């Protein structure tokens, strides 16, 4: 019997145009890397097609559905040939999943490409709020793009799922979030929200080892709705549970294969070229990697995959009530299926 779904995160863009403090693109310093710094670049469409051919060959008899998420730490809408990647995915009968901060100019081209799902990462409506957590971004551009997105979807008769993923901080749960919810209601887009994580995994490993955070990381933690120590505490009761992140394959723009979607440093890559390494070997490398043992021993895999859902939801609602947020009166805002979107481009 076939399994239901397999998921591949493929970073077709090896960087981002923003520098968000909760994301390693924004918070990783040169001294944080174990060896060399992470490279940047764009994936070639010809190489991507070879990746899809390999995925099709290795999964067609094992899974009913294959999801290709064109992101991990990079923003796919920055790729000048984004539409070709969506076309290639569609030609294979795979499902295309895209996440972006939507700080782009080519919104019509995105609609023409019509991915199956578009996640828009947001953390505020007003500029003062938004720039604290989406640094280098422009909320006016993002909001205008949401309206243009609906306009072109209607005009071109393109129907795909749009989710506004709102990152919860202590600083953005007042009028900012209310305005974003109203926009979602007006435009017919799905609104979801969840607590922010301190990413990548390497930062949390240092945190649990009591290694001092940088001043910038301390500022982020001070803004977080649910602190890292709370998230880690919730995870302890479930840490014997297997890690779902090991069931997903993460491919960087240059074809190297990452240990998982929560890890940033190339030092932890498990393969130099996805094309040269059978999926069975990749799966075994993930499950025998020493970093996995360390991570799971501390329960960090539960935190990274939001598996302590009941405890986390209760704490989120408690904190929202304490801060008198409108969100606490509408608990349906919490994401229904976090495991398919552990993090979005921020």
TrEMBL record:
<dbReference type="GO" id="GO:0003824">
    <property type="term" value="F:catalytic activity"/>
</dbReference>
<keyword id="KW-0408">Iron</keyword>
<dbReference type="GO" id="GO:0046872">
    <property type="term" value="F:metal ion binding"/>
</dbReference>
<keyword id="KW-0479">Metal-binding</keyword>
<keyword id="KW-0949">S-adenosyl-L-methionine</keyword>
<dbReference type="GO" id="GO:0051536">
    <property type="term" value="F:iron-sulfur cluster binding"/>
</dbReference>
<dbReference type="InterPro" id="IPR058240">
    <property type="entry name" value="rSAM_sf"/>
</dbReference>
<dbReference type="InterPro" id="IPR050377">
    <property type="entry name" value="Radical_SAM_PqqE_MftC-like"/>
</dbReference>
<dbReference type="InterPro" id="IPR013785">
    <property type="entry name" value="Aldolase_TIM"/>
</dbReference>
<protein>
    <submittedName>
        <fullName>Radical SAM superfamily protein</fullName>
    </submittedName>
</protein>
<dbReference type="InterPro" id="IPR007197">
    <property type="entry name" value="rSAM"/>
</dbReference>
<keyword id="KW-0411">Iron-sulfur</keyword>
């Amino acid at each position: 019997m076939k399994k239901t779904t397999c998921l591949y995160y493929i970073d077709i863009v090896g960087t981002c145009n923003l520098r968000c403090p909760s994301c390693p693109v924004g918070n990783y310093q040169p001294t944080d890397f174990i060896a060399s710094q992470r490279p940047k670049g764009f994936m070639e469409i010809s190489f991507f097609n070879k990746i899809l051919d390999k995925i099709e060959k290795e999964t067609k008899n094992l899974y009913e559905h294959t999801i290709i998420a064109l992101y991990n730490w990079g923003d796919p809408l920055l790729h000048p040939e984004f539409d070709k990647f969506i076309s290639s995915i569609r030609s294979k009968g795979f499902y295309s999943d895209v996440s972006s901060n939507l700080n782009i100019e080519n919104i019509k081209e995105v609609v023409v490409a019509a991915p199956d799902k578009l996640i828009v990462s947001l953390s505020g409506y007003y500029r003062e709020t938004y720039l604290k957590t989406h640094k280098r971004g422009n909320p006016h551009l993002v909001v205008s793009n949401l309206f243009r997105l609906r306009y072109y979807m209607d005009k071109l008769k393109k129907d795909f799922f749009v989710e506004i993923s709102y990152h919860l901080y202590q600083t953005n749960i007042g009028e900012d979030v209310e305005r974003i919810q109203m926009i979602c209601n007006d435009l017919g887009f799905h609104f979801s929200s969840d607590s922010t994580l301190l990413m990548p995994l390497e930062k949390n490993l240092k945190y649990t080892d009591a290694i001092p955070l940088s001043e910038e990381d301390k500022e982020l933690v001070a803004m977080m709705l649910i602190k890292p120590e709370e998230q880690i505490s919730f995870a302890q009761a479930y840490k014997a549970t297997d890690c779902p992140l090991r069931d997903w394959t993460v491919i960087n723009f240059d074809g190297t294969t990452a240990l998982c979607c929560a890890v940033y440093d190339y030092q932890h890559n498990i393969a130099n070229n996805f094309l040269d390494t059978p999926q069975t070997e990749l799966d075994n490398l993930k499950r025998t990697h020493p970093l996995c043992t360390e991570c799971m021993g501390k329960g960090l895999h539960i935190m990274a995959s939001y598996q302590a859902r009941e405890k986390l939801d209760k704490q989120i609602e408690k904190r929202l009530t304490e801060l008198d947020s409108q969100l606490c009166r509408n608990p349906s805002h919490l994401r229904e299926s976090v495991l398919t979107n552990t993090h979005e481009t921020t």
